[in-house]
Amino acid sequence: MTPEDREIQERTRRFVDDALIPWEVHAEEHEGRIPSETHEAHVAKARELGLASMNMPTELGGGGFTMLQQVLVSEQIGRVTNALGWCVHTPPAWAPSVCTPEQLERWIVPAVRGERHECYAITEEGAGSDVDAIESTATRDGDEYVLRGTKMHVTSYNTADWIFFQAKLAGGDHEGEHALFFVDKDTPGVRLIGEPRYSHTYPDTHALLAFDDVRVPTSHLVGAEGDGMSFTHEWFRYERLMIAARCCGAMERLIDQATAFAKERVQFGQPIIEFQAIGHMLADSLIDLWASRLMTYELARGIDAGIDVKIQHAQCSMAKLHASEAAGRVADRAVQIFGGRGYMRENVAERFYRELRVDRIWEGTSEIQRNIVADQLAKRGARHLLGEESGA
Ligand SMILES: Cc1cc2nc3c(=O)[nH]c(=O)nc-3n(C[C@H](O)[C@H](O)[C@H](O)COP(=O)(O)OP(=O)(O)OC[C@H]3O[C@@H](n4cnc5c(N)ncnc54)[C@H](O)[C@@H]3O)c2cc1C
Q: What is the pLDDT of residue 390?
């Protein structure tokens, strides 16, 4: 790491420790919510520290961080529960290269400034892992598209101003291909069906949404007709790497807290860390963290060095899969080490035990990551996927 990398890491760590972690228990006890002025202060502080839109180009007002620097920030953000770290907003980094000047001005630049926020409506009742099974449609009608469909699990709908809506084109030269649209939330026909509760205690909801003949001008199409899936894949790669980074942060926090507890908790006349069964759980957890961190940092460095996008795709799946499964094991062991206290919501291990579970599901389940890796392995071979033949 360069001195600048270390400084960014330290700056974020201090912010997480001093400003965010102290609010976790309050958030847990108040359905994920903290006072709005505190949340706004967190957002403002993240911006002042240069963390907001760290992934966006400096020309648009973003941080222009390297991928390694983004991983270092995300890792620290991962140390905090209850989505308090979501005060660091990262708009879609793929957008500037494909959006029109009007789209940049209306949606992306305000997102970089933190004035407007997006959410993603891709998943449907019948189409989760199999994104190509979506039934939502976009039908061209003169200078407009008519959008129809029902979407589920739309994260952050309650805080968003616009929705990225993915549909299949109905009619025209690209019939059946995917397309992505900007849809402002207040467009007639966008209808909230419900906001079910999930395992974690987060302020952001995951909405079930209907699009009833929603009309948008053709200028709301992202890129060209048929491009829809490529943006989604790019976003998946980014999010998978950042999930790996956040899982590393969560593991570090869990190991720190469980170790401190094990050194102090006395049973049968001795600190429980002196029982080999407890020490081994902590040792296995540290090994899980180290392996995950090595993969995550190495991949980020590879992306910064410009490794082939197919290798990136497979390596993002490997890192996400490994780190999310490792984090699940570490959280489980931490609950065990804390004993009955580990089952209390005021305990960090209890919260992470629930919160980390989704990292094996969203942005592609563990099974889908394994499918991607196996498919790439069959096509390209192990040496290539491990970067040995690419010079990375
Ligand atoms: C909290 C949360 C937030 C989310 N946020 C968003 C969001 O903002 N926007 C959005 O569009 N989506 C979002 N999602 C959806 C998420 O991406 C999907 O849940 C995920 O891709 C899995 O789809 P599914 O739930 O329909 O499961 P399914 O695809 O039905 O899978 C069910 C099971 O079958 C397995 N399976 C499926 N296919 C295969 C296969 N080929 N081989 C082996 N096993 C397989 C899966 O791994 C899983 O175990 C969110 C989900 C959650 C839980």
A: 54
CA of 358 to the centre of ligand 1 (A): 10
DSSP state of 33: -
Distance from C-alpha of 78 to C-alpha of 84, rounded to nearest angstrom: 10
Cross-strand pairs, 69 = none
- Residue-level pLDDT at 229: 86
Q: What spacing in Å lies between the alpha carbon of 160 and ligand 1's midpoint?
A: 22
Query: Crossing angle of helices 3-15/67-77, nearest 10°?
Result: 20
Pair 197, 151: CB distance under 8 Å: no
For range 143-154, the mean pLDDT: 98
pTM above 0.85, yes or no: yes
CA of 127 to the centre of ligand 1 (A): 8
Banded pLDDT at 233 (limits 50, 70, 90): confident
Catalytic site includes residue 4: no
Q: 152: Cβ below 6 Å to ligand 1?
A: no
Does residue 358's CB lie within 6 angstroms of at least one atom of ligand 1? yes
Enumerate residues 6+ apart whose C-beta is below 8 A from 121. 151, 154, 163, 164, 165, 166, 209, 211
**How is residue 271 annotated by DSSP?**
E
Residue 391 has pLDDT above 50, yes or no: no
Sequence-distant (6+) residues with CB within 8 A of 276 are none
Burial string for 51-63 (b: 16+ CB within 10 Å, else e) reads bbbbbbeeebebb
According to DSSP, the β-strands at 266-267 and 270-271 are antiparallel
Query: Is residue 231 very low, low, confident or very high in pLDDT (cuts 50, 70, 90)?
Result: confident
Virtual CA dihedral for 299, 305, 309, 126, nearest 10 degrees? Answer: 40
> For 99-108, what is the mean pLDDT?
97
Q: Is 129 in the pocket of ligand 1 (CB under 6 A)?
A: yes
pLDDT, position 217 = 98
β 162-170/144-155 pair status: unpaired
Which single residue is written with the structure tokens 């330290």? Answer: 10
* Nearest atom within ligand 1 for CA of residue 200: 1
Model confidence pLDDT, tens digit, residues 178-210: 999 999 999 999 999 999 999 999 999 999 999
The best mutation among 153, 162, 163 to test binding of ligand 1, ranked by most ligand atoms within 8 Å of the C-beta, falls on 153
Atom of ligand 1 nearest to the CA of 121: 11
